[in-house]
Amino acid sequence: MNASIPSLCGRCRPALRQAAILSRRYASTAPKSAPSPKNRWIGIAIVTVAAGGTGAYLRSQGPGSVTLNQETFTKYSLVSREPVSSTSSLFTLRPRYHSDHSYDVYEDAWKTGVWSVMFKQPQLQIGRDYTPLPVTAATPLTVDEENEGYLRFFIRKDPFGEVSRYLHSLAIGADIEMRGPQIECAIPEETQEILFIAGGTGIAPALQAGYSLLNRTTEANRPRIHILWASRLKEDCLGGKGDTPLATSSQRSWFSGWFGSSGNTGQGSQVAIPQDKEKSLIVRELDGLKSQYPGQITVDYYLDEENRFISKKNISDYIESMPRSPADPRGRKLILVSGPEGFISYMAGPKLWADGRELQGPLRGIIKELDLKGWAVWKL
Ligand SMILES: Cc1cc2nc3c(=O)[nH]c(=O)nc-3n(C[C@H](O)[C@H](O)[C@H](O)COP(=O)(O)OP(=O)(O)OC[C@H]3O[C@@H](n4cnc5c(N)ncnc54)[C@H](O)[C@@H]3O)c2cc1C
């Protein structure tokens, strides 16, 4: 997600964001065929063309709007910034001016799937994308705050990063301008299973995907999501207890795979965290979803600093444990991968940029090596 993308001077207009036909772009484990009505689910591919790119140059904007929208930047106020770990914080923002429609704008996005907003760094005139966290049972937002359009974000401070450093330096009460929502991935209605492979702050889209998918639960429809979350620091996933007791971890981290440093031998997928310690905010959010949708969401934690990495075997063990049906419609089973650029590349191959547009690129990495059948793969 820390993609280094060429400057898009003048190209980052919402008008240039195009809904793409995923059949042409997504990296799927299923054989490719000519587009057919069955491939409609692939409306998943609403690809961020320009506004989604980091490094985008922001053109000067007209007068601000009071309701979040894709055309102009809307002012929000920084309500609080609580540290989650030594490198990341939870930001709570509220619209600077009252609007009766803030909630409606978000609601559509939540129903669709995974979405983001772009924050502006006004001095440098650059923007970066961030992922709102869903409101779960563990969320400290009141109903009034929710209705007023409060948003929360889990943001990592990159010591050399322009926008994340700027956001971490702002005083409480300061204005932050944002634009959106940008739909990063529309989860098809027929989706029943999601395997979400998240690295670092890639857990924020995983929470969104879980929230969006599980909100579709009815007596007859009980979709499921399994999240594999890799963190570099124990503090980020403090108190996280994995749901797959016998999962084994990788011999090699995505980090070593990408940068070529030596691998390590891991022991298990559980983060060995004393249960008497407090839980990190994100673990509480995940537990909140679990208590809201018992049996429909499971999570396994992996920790770089303890040499516990997501392995091919962890992925294949989960896939094998799923019932198979050749009659499954496409879109029923989905693998989503989200995290830093190197993490996504290691898992599913790099995304590509061509003609000012971000494309999925071919499926590569360890997911390709697994040669999974019947699962569609989407890189966030
Ligand atoms: C859809 C989407 C959703 C996202 N959601 C979140 C989220 O919820 N939370 C979150 O924390 N992040 C999220 N991100 C990542 C976020 O958008 C930013 O990329 C991240 O915060 C870093 O931005 P920055 O401006 O601080 O760093 P940048 O200034 O972009 O720098 C990033 C890194 O690149 C290095 N770098 C920059 N320029 C060069 C250069 N010329 N040569 C070599 N190295 C260089 C810097 O040293 C730094 O380490 C998301 C990204 C996307 C695309």
From TrEMBL:
GO CC annotations on file: membrane; mitochondrion
Binding site for FAD: 128, 130, 163-164
Subcellular location(s) of the protein: Membrane
InterPro entries the record matches: CBR-like (IPR001834), Cbr1-like_FAD-bd_dom (IPR008333), FAD-bd_FR_type (IPR017927), FNR_nucleotide-bd (IPR039261), Riboflavin_synthase-like_b-brl (IPR017938)
One Pfam family per UniProt: FAD_binding_6
Domain FAD-binding FR-type: 71-188
Predominant location category: membrane
Alphabetical list of CDD domains matching this protein: cyt_b5_reduct_like
Keywords: FAD, Flavoprotein, Membrane, Oxidoreductase
TM ranges: none
Superkingdom per UniProt: Eukaryota
Cofactor(s) needed by this chain: FAD
GO molecular function: oxidoreductase activity
Xref: PANTHER family: CYTOCHROME C MITOCHONDRIAL IMPORT FACTOR CYC2, NADH-CYTOCHROME B5 REDUCTASE
Protein family according to the UniProt entry: Belongs to the flavoprotein pyridine nucleotide cytochrome reductase family.
Identification of the protein by name: FAD-binding FR-type domain-containing protein
Annotated source species: Penicillium argentinense
